Amino acid sequence: MEFGLFEKIMKELSGARRKPVVHLHGFGEPLLDTLLPERIKLAKACGIKHTYIVTNGSLLFAETSRKIIAAGLDSMKISFYGTDVESYHATMRGLDFNVTLQNIKDFLRIRKELKKKTPKLILQYLPQETNGARIDEFQTLWRSLPDKNGGDCLNISTLDNFGGGKSYNIVGEKIVSVCFYPWTALSVLCDGRAVTCCVDYNGVQGVGDLNCQSIEEIWNGPVLSGIRKNFGKLDYSGFPTCLSCDWVRRR
Fold first, then answer.
1. CA geometry: angle at 122 spanning 59 and 92, to 5°?
2. Angle between the 62-71 and 97-113 helix axes, to the nearest 10 degrees?
3. Bridge-based pairing state of the strands 193-195 and 187-188
4. Superfamily classification of domain 3-158
């Protein structure tokens, strides 16, 4: 995202009565963004109480760790979907088990050296066919490394269909759930377009554009208001991503 647009958004949030958690990522890799430390600093300067990223950790080199720690990042989830070289490489294709493992160890060491408690670390494992669903091995691998007393934790996740982008789960025939997203969050793509949900990564279901609108205008505007009204009645017609989502069509 162009930094001027990001600054506009953060300044708008600075005036909010209740400051939101700001996720500085979409479905891309946030550590590819060379301006990430500056974005974190700006968000914190604008009064954002919690900044957060999800990363695969492959680019979490020592210099990057120092920068995001110094910038004030509050928490970081690392997706580490393997317990050894074979299972990791089968799942995290194109990445290197040993490089990422060392990156995480270095991050924990640097954070300790700097006498910082943040960012809190969430190490996530996603049991699936490619990695053998070895939950016990994952827990053993990381048992002694994170600072659990300081707030670090391990997280065992589950597969989802990413709004129809994947077909991991069988989607039920009936719509059974009210999606809470339009009442709780706003996703903004890198070009400034706001969309219904974080899994609408292709921008199919637009609700506004922060290049020419404010957050307040979008949040309280007729588009999102109409979506909330329809979703509350389990009416997702006209929203193909939602209609393919295994959250609203859970079996």
1. 45
2. 40
3. antiparallel
4. Aldolase class I (3.20.20.70)
Question: What kind and span of H or E run contains 45?
Answer: helix 36-45
Q: Where do the structural domains in the chain lie, given as residue ranges? A: 3-158, 161-251
Where do we find the tokens 């990445």?
95
What digits encode the pLDDT tens for the residues 77-106? 999 999 999 999 999 999 999 999 999 999
Give the pair of three-digit tokens for residue 54: 């999800």
CB-based contact 102:131 (threshold 8 Å): no
pTM for this structure? Answer: 0.90
- C-alpha Rg value of the chain to the nearest Å: 19
CATH 3.20.20.70, applies to 161-251: yes
Nearest 5°: phi and psi at 197? -160, 155
